[in-house]
């Protein structure tokens, strides 16, 4: 048996309040107030989408922290007002307001901040470098992890990959989606969003697809180059034990929790 070190594998879904899950995922008659408690007992992480649209109160983050078990983490989508702008270098005030607005109440349950860009946003080297410099590496003495979700072909540039590596920011890897896939490893952790669940598959994905994604997570967490993913620069095995955050998003959402749990089972 290999004694190769691996990072944590944090598999989850987007959000926890979705009406079809009341029947397909949550136990009958479970109070909505206990849905987060239940979901966090079945999954390792949740990506929060509501933070993309508006701020949350510090006490809300604290409540989420207290309702979830040790080892569980939340990743947060950063506010759209910071990314949906023509000049990214002018986002500093909004970034600071978000980063100091109470999210550190999550403490060690803060996973990654996902900075998602519109599909029409093109790569401007100088402006994007200025944006990356605005992202704080720590808040209140706690290290903060950042990932960028870019969705335009112009980001398929070695210059962009080099910028992310310089600033220790992860590339969000889009799986089974209409968006371009850039699976280069640019940080000491990886962030994947897979979006291809189907109604016809009880677990969202076929067994073969689940095995493939589990294998991908296993490889990345061990610092190996995963097979089947598209990269901008030649993939390498760097032997870095990476934490891997993978979220089952979009697709046929009613099945997403089952897909995530199936991946967790395969990675035990």
Automatic annotation (TrEMBL):
Entry-linked Pfam families: DUF72
What organism does the UniProt record list as the source?
A: Falsochrobactrum tianjinense
Q: Matching InterPro entries, A to Z?
A: DUF72
What is the name attached to this protein's record?
Answer: DUF72 domain-containing protein
Domain of life according to the entry: Bacteria
């Amino acid at each position: 048996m290999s004694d190769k070190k691996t990072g944590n594998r944090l598999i989850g879904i987007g959000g926890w309040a979705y009406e079809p899950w009341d029947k397909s995922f949550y136990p009958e008659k479970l109070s909505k107030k206990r849905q987060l408690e239940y979901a966090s007992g079945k999954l390792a992480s949740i990506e929060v989408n509501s933070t993309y649209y508006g701020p949350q109160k510090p006490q809300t983050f604290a409540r989420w922290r207290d309702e979830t078990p040790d080892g569980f983490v939340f990743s947060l989508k950063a506010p759209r007002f910071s990314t949906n702008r023509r000049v990214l270098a002018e986002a500093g005030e909004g970034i600071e307001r978000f980063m100091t607005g109470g999210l550190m109440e999550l403490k060690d349950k803060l996973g990654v901040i996902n900075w998602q860009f519109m599909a029409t946003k093109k790569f401007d080297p100088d402006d994007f470098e200025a944006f990356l410099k605005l992202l704080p590496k720590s808040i209140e003495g706690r290290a903060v992890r950042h990932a960028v979700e870019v969705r335009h072909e112009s980001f398929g540039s070695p210059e962009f990959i080099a910028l992310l590596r310089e600033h220790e920011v992860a590339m969000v890897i889009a799986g089974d989606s209409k968006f371009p896939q850039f699976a280069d490893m640019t940080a000491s952790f990886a962030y994947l969003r897979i979006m291809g669940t189907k109604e016809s598959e009880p677990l969202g994905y076929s067994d073969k697809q689940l095995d493939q994604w589990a294998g991908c997570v296993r490889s990345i967490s061990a610092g190996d180059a995963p097979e089947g993913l598209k990269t901008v620069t030649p993939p390498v095995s760097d032997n870095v034990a990476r934490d891997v955050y993978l979220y089952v998003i979009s697709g046929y959402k009613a099945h997403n929790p089952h897909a995530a749990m199936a991946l967790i089972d395969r990675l035990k």
